[in-house]
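Quick one:
INPUT:
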């Protein structure tokens, strides 16, 4: 072979493989030569044509619009395959074009558009006109997205966070775009905001005390008391996160940008003309909405509730939790006791709609009547006796016996034991009924003439170091302290069995003891003698002296 032949061979080699190096992995212009159901044939000016699967023209239905003679960009994947054909790709051409455009957008900090087309681990994939980017879940939206169907196959605007062409890695954010829009919306909203303005917003967060509503760039607080005219226990009973609501601006602080919102203000106030609709004494039907330790709330109409205090639930059952009387959602009859329009409070009563057992008992019984009943409760201060199904009467410790210690005596009684007692008082207003057992017997103190200030006689039964004990009547003992003996005498001058007259100073019926004073008796006698002397002065001899009068009185005694 001649040198000329080798030179021709080199030219031929360079022509073949140099051309391949120049075209492979590049984007070239190609002319559509033919279209079919599965392939598009394209001439890129090389030795042979290339075919591209129709599926690579799927975006925006490009394959349906192509016709012979159209010029398109294609990517030369391989210069020549085993069949001698050139391998072309429309997808890769579009991707290369997109990467170039995206790099320019990243440099200029421009936003780009794309379609979210699939959900992957940690987020979504986005088609940026041929280049596939990753959208992290945290960068999808400002708020949590509950329905991803609203995202898939939809076009949105994104901000490119980073690009790595060698690794084919693009990360984008939709949240950054939305936050930028929020700043603009917030500034515009703040400039137009005014009290009384009606706006639409999205429930962003729910707390025990209210709801935060996104008004589009700025949040407002919808307090629990401003959600509904009807009392609610928690905002979640009415609202959910992501729900769209219509609210009114109640208050707006331009310095702190704090916005107070209301929903109920967009409805008619049910408390308007409340006094005319709910007059005192009026009986109504309602439904129990809430039960507390101090009573129960009753719904009277939409947005209007009243409180039945526990004291207004029963005429007779006291100190019992309201849940023992009523249950939630129970229909009840109530009577209006009072209406406070300013404080939006209505006081109700259930027991006022029922017969008053105290009035009924008072109509059938009077003070002094003797009744029978079982002991229902024994307390440290007395017995409670059942008079009928509703009423109890109380026998106080001091009314168990005239002479015995009530604290000891009460221990001899048993629950359920039936006893007799006398009605002492009937207090309808205070709902109290006082009974007495000792009153079934005569008062031994009265029978013995023992009363405070009375003069009594008794027999000395004991001479102690500091007092005398005196037997006044059966079971009744008198006590004369050292300082209360006769003037000029001491305790040793008295003997057992000696009779003594003394004045009653006090009576301790609980212990059947009477405090006596001989000295006080003497003073009383002297006073009586003086009065008698004054009344008899005109009839007595003028020579009679006051000493004579006292002497006669003492001698007579």
């Amino acid at each position: 072979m001649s040198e000329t032949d080798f030179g021709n061979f080199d030219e031929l080699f360079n022509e073949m493989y140099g051309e391949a190096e120049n075209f492979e992995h590049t984007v070239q212009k190609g002319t559509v030569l033919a279209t079919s159901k599965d392939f598009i044939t394209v001439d890129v000016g090389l030795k042979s044509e290339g075919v591209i699967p129709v599926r690579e023209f799927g975006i925006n239905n490009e394959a349906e619009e192509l016709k012979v003679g159209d010029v398109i960009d294609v990517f030369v994947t391989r210069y020549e395959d085993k069949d001698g054909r050139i391998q072309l790709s429309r997808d890769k051409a579009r991707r290369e074009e997109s990467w170039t455009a995206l790099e320019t957008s990243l440099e200029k900090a421009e936003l780009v558009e794309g379609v979210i087309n699939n959900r992957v681990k940690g987020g979504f994939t986005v088609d940026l006109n041929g280049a596939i980017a990753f959208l992290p879940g945290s960068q999808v939206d400002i708020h949590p997205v509950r329905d991803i169907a609203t995202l898939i196959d939809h076009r949105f605007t994104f901000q490119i966070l980073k690009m790595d062409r060698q690794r084919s890695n693009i990360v984008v954010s939709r949240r950054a775009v939305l936050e930028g829009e929020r700043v603009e919306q917030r500034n515009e909203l703040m400039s137009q905001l005014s009290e009384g303005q009606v706006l639409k917003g999205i429930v962003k967060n729910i707390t025990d005390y209210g709801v935060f509503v996104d008004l589009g760039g700025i949040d407002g607080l919808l307090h629990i008391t401003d959600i509904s005219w009807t009392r609610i226990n928690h905002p979640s009973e009415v609202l959910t996160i992501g729900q769209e609501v219509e609210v009114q601006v109640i208050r707006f602080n331009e310095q702190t940008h704090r916005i107070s919102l209301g929903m109920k203000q967009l409805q008619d106030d049910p408390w308007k003309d409340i006094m005319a609709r709910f007059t005192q004494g009026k009986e109504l039907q309602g439904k129990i909405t809430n039960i507390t330790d101090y009573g129960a709330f009753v719904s009277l109409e939409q947005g209007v509730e009243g409180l039945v205090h526990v004291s207004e639930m029963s005429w007779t059952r006291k100190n019992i939790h309201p849940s023992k009387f009523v249950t939630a959602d129970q229909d009840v009859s109530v009577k209006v006791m009072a209406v406070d329009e300013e404080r939006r409070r209505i006081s109700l009563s259930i027991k006022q709609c029922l017969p008053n057992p105290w009035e009924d008992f008072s109509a059938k019984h009077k003070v002094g009547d003797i009744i029978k009943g079982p002991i229902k409760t024994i307390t440290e201060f007395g017995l409670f006796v059942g008079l009928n199904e509703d009423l109890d009467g109380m026998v106080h410790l001091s009314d168990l016996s005239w002479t015995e210690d009530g604290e000891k005596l009460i221990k001899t009684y048993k629950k359920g034991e039936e006893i007799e007692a006398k009605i002492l008082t009937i207090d309808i207003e205070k709902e109290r009924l006082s009974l007495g057992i000792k009153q079934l017997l005569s008062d031994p103190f009265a029978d013995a003439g023992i009363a405070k200030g009375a003069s009594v006689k008794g027999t000395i039964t004991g001479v102690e170091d500091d007092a005398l004990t005196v037997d006044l009547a059966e079971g009744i003992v008198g006590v004369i302290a050292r300082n209360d003996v006769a003037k000029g005498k001491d305790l040793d001058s008295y003997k057992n069995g000696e009779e003594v007259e003394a004045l009653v100073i006090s009576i301790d019926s609980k212990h059947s003891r009477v405090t006596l004073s001989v000295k006080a008796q003497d003073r009383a006698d002297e006073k009586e003698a003086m009065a008698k002397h004054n009344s008899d002065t005109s009839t007595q001899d003028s020579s009679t002296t006051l000493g004579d009068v006292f002497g006669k009185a003492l001698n007579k005694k």
